[in-house]
Amino acid sequence: MKLIVLTLVFLLWSVARADETVVTEMRASFWRTEATPMFEINRDLGRAWVTIKSWDASQSRRDRYYSYYRQLVPGLSFDKESSTIVYEKDGAITTCAKVESRGRSIFRWDYILPTGCELKLKKVMRDVDNGYEVRRVEMIQVLLNVL
Hints:
Blueprint: H1 2-16, E1 20-27, E2 33-42, E3 47-56, E4 67-71, E5 76-79, E6 84-89, E7 92-102, E8 109-114, E9 117-129, E10 134-146
């Protein structure tokens, strides 16, 4: 009976993870690298992408240098009519975020509220062959999880 329950739990867990898509994978630096993924849009062109903000967490806040990486995600776009970010995969369309304009005049900005998708980070170890030796390095994966 316990074996059947464990098998069912494993199957449900693997089905739940089936909608996870690897957006990008970047190498963590020698220091303690931290990152934050976020959605961004271009209203005029109807485009959406994921921007990853990374920094060295061993530095003080005042001395930190932030790096920004943009990554296109196949199937991710901005719908002008409904003002939402949508993700299409295998014919299924998911609303990932709602976009609201806030502020006035030149201080107007887009507020993006994630709804049906989640951007997550996962640290993994990979073997990297540079032609001379194989090294085990830490990589940061950015995952798009459809809820």
